[in-house]
Design brief:
Length: 630
């Protein structure tokens, strides 16, 4: 193989925000995943409209004690608030009557000596002592226990205590029982580990530590959220407008902020229930803590993802949604003397989030998207001309419709178009030149979702090969994110995924490691290069070379990279004058049939630069970013 790099050829500026992440609440990515809440169905709101097997008692068992009735109720005069209407009602004949929660996966994963914060809303007509405990599934062993005294009071009040576990197990149950005969009502029964992820800006979060850290380790430059099909499918009512009747509401950001007990739960496109415990403020803060640009995606009243739910065509309703969209930007960026900037400040974040991008629509196959999009975009551009509006092209496999949407976007003169595709590894190998021929004068590309089908080593390699094509074209492809991000292994609606977990373990897929390698090694300028040698022959995956070469700025005057074996000069450049650069080099080798990053290549490079310039290696990093498929 020979790699020729032409240092004199014109270089292409690489996008500063090229690699980011796409977060969607799919595969239990939020509840039972990134959101650290351990109690499942804490507000008794699960409903068969979300999932035929769900009821208000999903994940709860009755503890019989002295006997009585335990059931989910929803009396207007009794409920916690208008956004949280279901609650548990216990009519106890004596002590010990209550409920047991099974959590997610095998149960509650707890660690010896770790602390867990318990909170709950209670209403009791008698004075009594409630018992809160963590127990084994058979009830034989108690891992932690506390009592909470409640007075006879005809109103809801919040109680709290802290449990400390005496064992490390992954199948505990949370048990709450009353201490006397009488009527007891419970809602928002919650248990959080004390140890959640701590962000550098916002401090302790509500995010599960290991999962948030896996994301942070990718060093993403943007965070796209909250979907995907979670974003743009449903009716367009709010929970209150529908008087709590509408269980299939399109995701609306205003329902997801404020005290968690006042956030209505909602149907999730992927067939389960979303608590909105992770809402817009949490997503913005997570992005800020990741050092990533927030990139929310909102519906324009068109249902995508093959949904048949009626779309938004009435003018008044569209106008409210347009206003909500503009309000979101004010919530993110507005001064604290604006209406929504003030709300952000009240919620504890006076500093603006610096929103730069907003996605309108996800994967729309209907005409309503074209009808509504211009109105949303015009309203945003009028008030926030600096915010980049991203349109979309629908999924890549829709043939003519994909082309039509691209044409629409060209006519509209949009800045960026969100493309999605999921294909076989061979497709990725055969199409790494996809963007070479895209029109540079048209809209730029946000590759918002892509993955090769499978979670095996060959997928990671095919994606790596493809990403060299993204890098070479990163003047055009400004943003790219693998999808989906998370999957709880016991609740999978979509595979492959980048990161996997259960209730106490988490791991990156092979694709995660490809993403991490590329995301944590990015350049400033693409340096044209040419490879001669055996060509890629997909399929099967063998014998190909895919590469991108780039430079990052740092501190030396010129650089020569020589192949130590042959003595060939691989790359040389004389950065005369003021220019300073840091070249990076790295190669992949096949060692004993395994595909590995070439330590030798890096070591060679390390020895070249100090020799040539008489300086310490510690001043430099060297990575040629030649990704070779052996
Ligand atoms: O990433 C999973 C799904 O794929 C997304 O929700 C949707 O946008 C696409 O169809």
């Amino acid at each position: 193989h020979t790699l020729t790099i032409d240092a004199d050829a014109p270089r292409t500026e690489m996008s500063d925000d090229l690699y980011g992440v796409f977060y969607e609440d799919i595969n239990y990515a939020a509840d039972g995943g990134l959101y650290a809440e351990l109690v499942r169905n804490r507000s008794f709101e699960f409903a068969p409209t979300d999932n035929a097997s769900f009821t208000g008692m999903t994940a709860w068992d009755v503890v019989e004690g002295a006997g009585g009735t335990v059931e989910v109720a929803s009396e207007r005069s009794e409920w916690l608030n208008d956004s949280n209407r279901a609650y548990l009602q216990i009519e106890a004949d004596g002590p010990g009557v209550g409920v047991r929660n099974e959590g997610y996966n095998s149960g509650f994963a707890i660690e010896r000596r770790e602390k867990y914060d318990f909170t709950m809303f209670v209403r009791s007509d008698v004075r009594q002592r409630l018992t809160v405990s963590l127990e084994s599934a058979d009830g034989e062993t108690t891992y932690a226990e506390k009592t909470i005294r409640v007075n006879a009071r005809d109103e809801w009040r919040k109680v709290r205590t802290r449990l400390r576990a005496n064992a490390t197990v992954d199948d505990a149950r949370l048990v709450v029982t009353g201490g006397a005969a009488g009527t007891l009502r419970l809602d928002m029964v919650s248990l959080f580990p004390r140890d959640t992820w701590v962000g550098p800006v916002n401090g302790r979060s509500v995010l599960r530590e290991d999962l948030a850290q896996l994301v942070a380790d990718l060093e993403p430059s943007f965070l796209r959220f909250p979907g995907g099909c979670v974003t743009n499918v449903g009716t367009f009512d709010t929970y209150l407008e529908s008087d709590g009747q509408d269980r299939r509401r399109t995701y609306q950001w205003k329902e997801t902020i404020g005290p968690v007990e006042e956030r209505p739960t909602n149907w999730n496109f992927w067939g389960y229930n979303q608590s909105y415990g992770l809402g817009y403020l949490e997503y913005f803060e997570f992005a800020e803590d990741l050092g990533a640009t927030p990139l929310p995606v909102l519906s324009v009243g068109a249902n995508g993802c093959g949904s048949r739910i009626p779309e938004m065509t009435d003018d008044e309703r569209i106008e409210r949604w347009v206003q909500d969209t503009v309000d979101l930007i004010e919530f993110a960026n507005g001064d604290t003397d604006t209406e929504w900037g003030a709300v952000r400040a009240e919620l504890g974040h006076p500093e603006p989030f610096g929103l730069e991008y907003i996605g309108l629509g996800n994967e729309e196959n209907t005409r309503t998207f074209e009808a509504n999009f211009p109105r949303f975009r015009a309203a945003i551009e009028e008030r926030y001309p600096d915010v980049t509006v991203i349109s979309n092209s629908g999924p890549d496999d829709t043939g003519a419709r994909f082309d039509e949407l691209w044409e629409f976007n060209r006519e509209q003169g949009v800045d960026m178009v969100d493309e999605h595709y999921y294909n076989d590894p061979a497709w990725f190998l055969a199409n790494d030149d996809r963007y070479d021929s895209y029109d540079r004068n048209g809209p730029h590309v946000f590759l918002g979702e892509y993955a090769s089908r499978g979670n095996q080593w060959r997928n990671a390699l095919a994606e790596a090969a493809y990403m060299t094509g993204i890098e070479r074209n990163s003047d055009l492809v400004e943003l790219a994110s693998y999808a989906p991000m998370f999957a709880n292994e016991d609740y999978v609606q979509w595979s492959p995924d980048m990161m996997w977990f259960d209730n106490d373990e988490s791991w990156g897929s092979t694709s995660y490691h490809t993403q991490k390698m590329f995301m944590t090694n990015t350049g400033d300028e693409v340096v044209p290069s040419e490879h001669t040698g055996p060509e890629a022959t997909p399929p099967p995956l063998s014998g190909g070379v895919f590469l991108s070469t780039w430079l990052t700025q740092a501190a030396y005057d010129d650089v020569v990279v020589t192949d130590n074996e042959t003595g060939d000069v691989l790359f040389s450049d004389d950065f005369s004058g003021e220019e300073t650069w840091d070249a990076q080099a790295g190669a992949w080798d096949v060692v004993d049939g395994e595909y590995v990053q070439s330590a030798a290549g890096v070591e060679d490079a390390r020895s070249i630069i100090p020799d040539a310039y008489g300086q310490d290696w510690s001043d430099y990093t060297l990575d040629l970013s030649a990704r070779k498929l052996g």
